[in-house]
Amino acid sequence: MVAFDxxxxxxxxxxxxxxxxxxxxxxxxxxxxLSAILNLPKGTEHFMSDVHGEYEAFMHILNNCSGVVxxxxxxxxxxxxxxxEKGELCTLIYYPHEKIELVRSQRExxxxxxxxxxxxLIMVARSLSSRYTRSKVRKAIPRDYAYIIDxxxxxxxxxxxxxxxxxxxxxxxxLETASADDFIESLASLIxxxxxxxxxxxxxxxxxxxxxxxxxxRLLTYHSLDIQWGNHDLLWMGAxxxxxxxxxxxxxxxxxxxxxxxxxxxxxxxxxxxVAFADATYTAxxxxxxxxxxxxVLLFKLEGQIIQRHPEFDMTDRLLLDKIDHDAxxxxxxxxxxxxxxxxxxxxxxxTDPYTLTSQEQHIIDKLVxxxxxxxxxxxHIDFLYSHGSMYKVANGNLLFHGCVPLNEDGTFSSMNCLGxxxxxxxxxxxxxxxxxxxxxxxxxxxxDWMWYLWIGFNSPASGRLVRTFExxxxxxxxxxxxxxxxxxxxxxxxxxxxxxxxxxxxxxxACSPTGHIINGHTPVKTTKGxxxxxxxxxxxxxxxxxxxxYHPKTGIAGYTLISSSRGCRLKSHRAFxxxxxxxxxxxxxxxxxxxxxxxxRRRMVSDTDTGAKIRxxxxxxxxxxxxxRNGAIEERA
Length: 638
Prior knowledge:
The protein is of the alpha/beta class.
């Protein structure tokens, strides 16, 4: 029995709890239920990062759950199915609608094929459902076939095989009523839902690839996820809030990758006036197109205005428009070196007032701001980023953030002047989270300026490097392109530094993560140069997804994802995804290599997780309520 405390505040809480559990029976029934849940296997967590608009590759990794589905298929069917048969089943799970269409077009959609596939899908779904409560499984089952699927999942042989015949008759009826296509899609959806309990997306959904809007549309319907904002996400968040420099950067990033569709078709941002202005104002026939020239100058003017408003950003090295010698066609960098420019076409830059927009430029920016702040589709996506995202997250003994925790060379936390108050470490990331939300809710000038800084500032936890935008745009010599990184990226090779960071964020070892891990993305792991994603004796995991095709030659692979299940952790290194068409016709999956670590003999259970800690707290409260009922302190209600 739990000692009952008549503390007024606790007593008030117990009275509120009694509304949900009005009788002794309801209270101890819930205690029994929660105690049982503690002894279920821990749900599988899926970690992804840096998907950068690569929709097809993202969807394939999401569909195959970084190989979890194939692992279950191999485990369930063993040698009873061939390699190719397992591949066909997995492809059907990943792309049920498309696979059925292909099979039908090849006239292979016989009743035998349908029955075989249905039986196999039911076996996979039944195996996966055994890890959850029946209540949770029922909630995951697609509504249209909820009763039938629930029956099939819990059909087991009995003495006279009545249940087996019952199962067979259900499947026959599905075929007879021509419902197999929809039913297969529902089963495939359930399997993917049960294969992964929760998705952690560690930043950078946007830019480079053109499919970020489609990715966001899919995430809107995903069953359980959290997002740690990356610098590219924060950039779009700032743009949607109406920050002009963020808008100019979004345009520049996407125009350089020819991603017109996401701007014009997905989000309804018209580029017509900008294109007309660029063509009429800038010289064609040079390596830099008039459109890129126009957006470059707009960006550098707008950036310059922010830097001049915020000397605490310490970014005067980016003020280069006033360092251009227009007669000589050169620019003087912050270190005093002079470099020739690849173009001297700056017709709107007034040497005496280089950071002021012309009236025409101001008109274009005003119009773009208006379009970004009224783009409904974009705002639905940004609302979702705010409601499901944050600068960092502590979950199950892991610390998740996209970029870095700014450090000094000696490993201490670097301080930042944040609107007159200095912050460092966790306190600084909390400020960044707060200011990002303020930019969206309030939209004041300081908060909006900070959104731009979070995108690109050296001391920004989402960036952590000196970005050489002007140099890369206008200077051919690549020695000027070098971008120094925050000491975090080298110091975290040390386990003790990682321990200090985790301690700062309150990460404590748990049974499901005995040493704790820092998990981040942001920097592609260059395997061609010998870099490894597991660092600091396993305390730092860098899972930059490497989805962006432009980075594949540099990294040597198509990035990493992470799986944390009841059996331990598995780091997945992926080869480049080809196409959905090839996956369908040849049952080709992404080739992945698995690095297993943190494995234990004992399976990790719900009791070993954050959810387990919450459940134990709930059980404690319910025991107090039960004691209050039995002592007569609170009366039962019928």
